[in-house]
Amino acid sequence: MTTALATAAAFDGPSAIFAGADVCREAGFLLPEGTQRPLFEDDTWDFTDVIGLPVQLALCTRRFNFTAITDTRWRLVAKELVLALFAPRHPAVAPLPRAHRTALHLRSCAGRLDELTRLFAWLDKQAIGSLQQISTQICEAYMAHRRYVLDEDGTVVGEQSPATRRAAAQVVVDLVNYRDLFTADRVPGALRPWGGATASAVAEMPSGRTENKTSPVEDSVLQPMLAAALYVVSTLGPHAIRLDREVRENDSSISCKTAGLRHGGPDFADEIVKLLAEYTRTCTPLPMLAENYAADRLADGWFPDDPLLPVATGVLARQAGFSQFWSRWFPALRGPLESAVASVGVEKMFARQASEVTTADGTSSLSWTLPLHRLQAVALVGIVRTAVIIVLAAVSGMRASELMELRVGCRRPPEEPVPGLTRYRVASKVVKGQPLGGTDDEWVVIEPVYRAISLAEQLHDAPHDGSLLFGRFAFGVRYKWFKNWVNSEAGRRLGLAPIPNGPVNLRMLRRTLALELAYRPGGVLASKIHLKHVVVATTEGYASRPGGAQAELLAEVNKHESDRNLDLVLAEFRNYQQGILPAGPGARSLTEFFASIDEKLDPAAASAPKTQRSDRDVLNLLAKRAKVLHLGPANYCWFTDPSRALCLKLAGTPTADRPLVGMCDSARCPQATHHPCHRPVWAEHVDRTETFIGQLGTTRMTERARLQADHDRALRVVAEIDAARTTMDEDSA
After folding, report:
1. String of b and e for 496-524 (b: at least 16 CB within 10 Å)?
2. 311: three-class secondary structure by DSSP
3. Consecutive H or E run containing 427
4. How far apart (Å, rounded) are the C-alpha atoms in residues 615 and 598?
5. I need a surface site. Which of 333, 397, 436, 708 has the fewest CB within 10 A?
């Protein structure tokens, strides 16, 4: 097949618009003094040193390589288009009627260049030698080419995402919109691909008014993952700091690059024998060789039962002042080495005297880690760093770009706006939707996040103020390592619950926190503010615009609440079937309701052949009661009749359509029930009240009487919860 390069004459002339242009100056990028500046004629534009680029931006995205476009005319077209996207206010770009009016981000321009390279390569394979040959049919053919995923045999096995399809359509639209700017080649003036439709319409992009496509992390995954991360940060973190220092000190003292090491000498045997004597005197095991190096020795002909096979002789040599342990030394030193091995043994070098910690399940105390090789110690410190990232992402809700902008010293001094209430803040940058360089901002966080950042600073390679705390990282890879460690023998040894398989990424963690915040009163606005969406929240909050992002989030939260309530009602119905009854003033009404449902499920009592047996049918029967369920701190409120709600009577609002859960007196309200899940709350209240009563002086009779009544009520609730189950157990017996 004839290529485009062969059918068209090579073009080596200058651009009619941008000849000799300084790319960074035209784009408004700042560079440090003395940095080489990319010029328009360069085939590689290097933006690595541009001031203000986000840390998240990969190095490959900062280098624009035009050499992949073989046709020199099309390479010039690509350069002119990319620079026009960078500099929309250039005198030659601004008059174009359909040109972009705001500069595109460097990442967006890199994506355009990648797609242009694909388009030109495809045109080359189709024997199209000039952009003048492009027609609407060719545009359709290219979209079909980019729409589907093909296997090795050319069979369609899937479909590309709308974003990929939009990128393919957009470069064609750009070639049309910027046609008058191009010097060497251009599409026909009458070309109107897809009838002038936008790239988003061509790609069938979702409108953006549907539910957020990023799903929250499943509870079955989130709970063990976050519990493990918090345990690692709070319990293992301080020990990991000491382990990290131990590794660094070892590297600086016995590294192969340590200054002053000798290659040998006549006294090599005396020095190493003296070192072995010190090991023996202090009863210190000799350093163990890593398994991969021991395997290399076996491959070199060592015997598996050789007592010196696991000994790290190179470490011993460097400790004695030599650069390495030469094989010719073995005849003279085998005897002393074997004697030392027989006397003190061999052990991994790091964490030999690890401190004891309480396991995550609280069942025992043991050393926080077993002895480790150097690479194992480095990997364990990396696991702790990953746990810090998980805690930060899950609890603070910061975006990936904002986490990567964190720097050593980002913790602000704690504030105490009111006595007993401490507020913690961390500083970073908001990158998304901000000008180049981002915008400095602060996040209010809870104490575990604050302490996790402190741990990360102490594990930093160079912890001076201003250095990046994490830098650019691949969370997917880090999380995989973390999950594998938790699920390994090391995690089981520490009592950590295994993390099941399931997708987890930083967007999903942010989404999960947004939903949890939005569950609470005023939570929609609170989540918008905390997640740095405050402008959108304020606008839509005042306008109450139907279908706005706030309304969508609120509708989604309501759906999650409905699903949660339905799950709770189903769980209590199953408890009823197993003999675990509710207690409290509303217990009889709820029990009668469950009994009526149970009767409908009894095939013998059914009046028609059809019976309701599946969970879906049961949920349908329970759905109406689930709609009136409201969760109190120590009870369930079944808000079936507002006129009977004690909280509304006390507040003087008998016509309200929702209960005032904060005013609930569940021991007296006829619509409140207590369940076994509430017993710990009431039992703790009993213990605390007893403590307060014991601390009162003899003269505080009024306060004592009030607390005693409160104590008796809590005791009565606990007894009723226990009695409800005991009664059913006796009836069953």
Report:
1. bbebeeeebebbbbbbbbbbbbbeeeebb
2. strand
3. strand 421-430
4. 13
5. 708
